[in-house]
Design brief:
The protein is of the alpha+beta class and 451 residues long. The protein folds into 2 domains: 2-110, no CATH class; 143-447, 3-Layer(aba) Sandwich (Beta-lactamase), CATH 3.40.710. The protein has 13 helices and 15 strands. Helix 1 packs across helix 7 and helix 5 (195-208) runs parallel beside helix 9. It is globular, with a radius of gyration of 23 Å. It starts with a helix and ends with a helix.
Length: 451
C-alpha cells in the first residue's frame, strides 16, 4: 500500500508538472508565432528582403527559430506555426503589416490608407538633404579612415556587430555610406525602439501647432479617479509616469504581450496601475510610447487626418516620403517599435534634431523642442531625456556628454553629436543576447577621423 501511494504521488506530481508546463507553453505560443509572423511579413513585404535571409538572421533564436512559416504572396500574408499555436500577419499598403488579433481580417482588409500624401517631389532629382543627389563636398573629415571603418563593419562584422547599413553625416553631408550586399539605399529597415523618437517629433509638431501642452495632465478617462489623473505628457515621454510595467523581452512580459497578443496596444498599456508616485521613478517602458501614440491620434477628428499628418508634417518634409509607420489592429501607430525607413531617412531624422528642429531651411519642430528632448529626466541618472537616450552619465565613455541617441532593441542606432556636427546611423542585427555591439569603440574610431 505504501509503495502504491508513493507511485500515485509521483504520478500526481508528474501530471501536475506536465499540466503546468503545457499551460505556460500555451501562453507563450501567441508570442512565439506572433513574433515570427509579424516580423517575417514586414521584412518580406515592407523591406522586400529575402525570407531565407530573414529566417537565418533575424528569426534565428530561441523558440522563434523553430516556427514553420508560410508566405502567401498573392494575399501578402505570413502564417507561422509552432506546436499547436498559429499566428497570421497581413500587409496593407500604407499601413504596413498588422498581426491579426481579435479584429477580423476582412475588416482590416477593407480599410484603405488615405490619399493626399504625395510629397510633390522626386528625390532622384533633388539635392541632399531633401533629395538623394549627394554633393561631393570636403567637410574636413578623414574619409579614407572612415571608409576603412565602414568596410570592416560591413565585410568583417567588426566591433562585434552584424551591420546591414552604416551612414555618417558630417556638417550636414553624407561622408560615409555602406550596405551589406543584400541591402541598398532603398531598403526599409526596422527601427525597433528608435520609433519612440519619431513619436517625440510628432508631439513636438502638435505642440508647435498649439494642439498639445506636454505639462498638463493628459485627461485619460480611465485615469480620472486615481493617482494617474496627475500624469502629464512630459511624465510619459520621460518614462516617469509611475505606471507599472515589465519591459523584459526574454519571456511573457508586458512588452511581449502588448506587441504580440493585444489588438489595442495603447489601452493595454494605459490600463496598468500606478506603482510609483508620478514623476518620481524612471523605468523604461514601450507601453508609454504607445499611450502617447494614442494621444496623438486623439487630436484628430478622423483617421484620415491622423494618418496623413505623419506623412505631410514630418516624413515628406524631411525627405523620408517612403517611410512606413505600422499600426496595431485598431489603427493606432505602434510608436514603440514598428517604423520602417531607409538608412538615409534615419540619417535625415538625426539631421533634423542636430539642426535644432530645422530641416532644409524650414522649422519643423518648435524652438526649444530639441533642448527639451535632451534635458535629463530627473530620476534617470543622466540616461534619458524625452524619448531619447542621453550620454550625460557617460554610459558610452568615448563619446561626448552632449551626444544623444535613438536606440533599437536589436542594435539599431542614430547617434547625434551636435558639437562635432556628426550623425551616425547603424542598422543591423546585433542584439544584446549575442553580446551586443561595441558602439563605444566604433564611436571612438569615428571621432578619430575628425581633423
Amino acid at each position: 500500500m505504501t509503495r502504491k501511494r508513493v507511485v500515485y504521488g509521483v504520478l500526481i506530481i508528474l501530471g501536475a508538472a506536465i499540466i503546468g508546463v503545457t499551460v505556460y507553453l500555451n501562453s507563450l505560443l501567441p508570442i512565439i508565432t506572433g513574433y515570427a509572423a509579424k516580423n517575417l511579413c514586414s521584412d518580406v513585404f515592407v523591406s522586400l528582403r529575402d525570407p531565407g535571409n530573414v529566417e537565418a538572421i533575424d528569426l534565428n533564436f530561441s523558440f522563434i527559430k523553430l516556427t514553420k512559416n508560410s508566405i502567401n504572396y498573392d494575399e501578402k500574408s505570413v502564417t507561422s506555426h509552432f506546436l499547436w499555436g498559429k499566428s497570421k500577419a497581413i500587409y496593407r499598403a500604407g499601413f504596413g503589416v498588422t498581426l491579426l488579433r481579435d479584429i477580423p481580417e476582412e475588416k482590416l482588409r477593407k480599410t484603405r490608407y488615405p490619399s493626399g500624401i504625395d510629397p510633390g517631389y522626386s528625390q532622384d532629382t533633388l539635392k541632399w538633404p531633401l533629395g538623394d543627389i549627394v554633393p561631393g563636398k570636403n567637410t574636413g573629415i578623414d574619409t579614407l579612415k572612415l571608409n576603412d571603418i565602414a568596410k570592416r563593419l560591413i565585410t568583417d562584422n567588426a566591433y562585434n556587430g552584424d551591420v546591414f547599413a552604416f551612414i555618417v553625416i558630417h556638417k550636414g553631408i553624407p561622408v560615409a555610406e555602406a550596405y551589406k550586399p543584400q541591402f541598398n539605399q532603398k531598403t526599409r529597415f526596422l527601427s525597433w525602439s528608435m520609433a519612440k523618437s519619431f513619436i517625440n517629433a510628432m508631439v513636438g509638431i502638435l505642440v508647435k501647432q498649439g494642439k498639445l501642452d506636454i505639462m498638463k495632465p493628459v485627461g485619460i478617462d480611465e485615469w480620472k479617479n486615481d493617482e494617474r489623473s496627475k500624469i502629464t505628457l512630459n511624465n510619459i515621454m520621460q518614462m516617469q509616469s509611475g505606471l507599472k510595467w515589465n519591459e523584459d523581452y526574454g519571456n511573457r512580459s508586458d512588452v511581449t504581450l502588448m506587441l504580440h497578443c493585444e489588438s489595442d496596444m495603447a489601452h493595454f498599456a494605459l490600463d496598468r496601475p500606478s506603482a510609483y508616485p508620478v514623476g518620481a521613478h524612471w523605468y523604461y517602458s514601450s507601453g508609454a510610447t504607445n499611450i502617447v501614440s494614442y494621444l496623438i491620434r486623439r487630436q484628430f477628428s478622423n483617421d484620415s487626418s491622423y494618418y496623413v499628418f505623419a506623412n505631410n508634417q514630418l516624413f515628406n518634409k524631411i525627405g523620408a516620403p517612403d517611410a512606413v509607420f505600422e499600426v496595431d489592429p485598431t489603427g493606432t501607430r505602434v510608436g514603440s517599435s514598428y517604423l520602417y525607413a531607409t538608412a538615409r531617412d534615419y540619417a535625415r531624422f538625426g539631421l533634423l534634431f542636430e539642426n535644432d528642429g530645422v530641416f532644409n531651411g524650414e522649422r519643423i519642430l518648435p524652438e526649444g523642442w530639441v533642448k527639451y528632448s535632451t534635458s535629463v529626466a530627473s530620476a534617470s541618472n543622466g540616461l534619458y531625456g524625452s524619448f531619447f537616450w542621453l550620454n550625460r552619465g557617460k554610459s558610452l565613455p568615448s563619446a561626448p556628454e552632449d551626444m544623444y541617441a535613438c536606440d533599437g532593441h536589436d542594435g539599431q542606432h542614430i547617434y547625434i553629436l551636435p558639437t562635432q556636427q556628426l550623425v551616425v546611423v547603424i542598422l543591423g542585427y546585433s542584439p544584446l543576447s549575442k553580446g551586443g555591439m561595441d558602439t563605444d569603440g566604433l564611436l571612438k574610431d569615428i571621432l578619430g577621423t575628425l581633423k
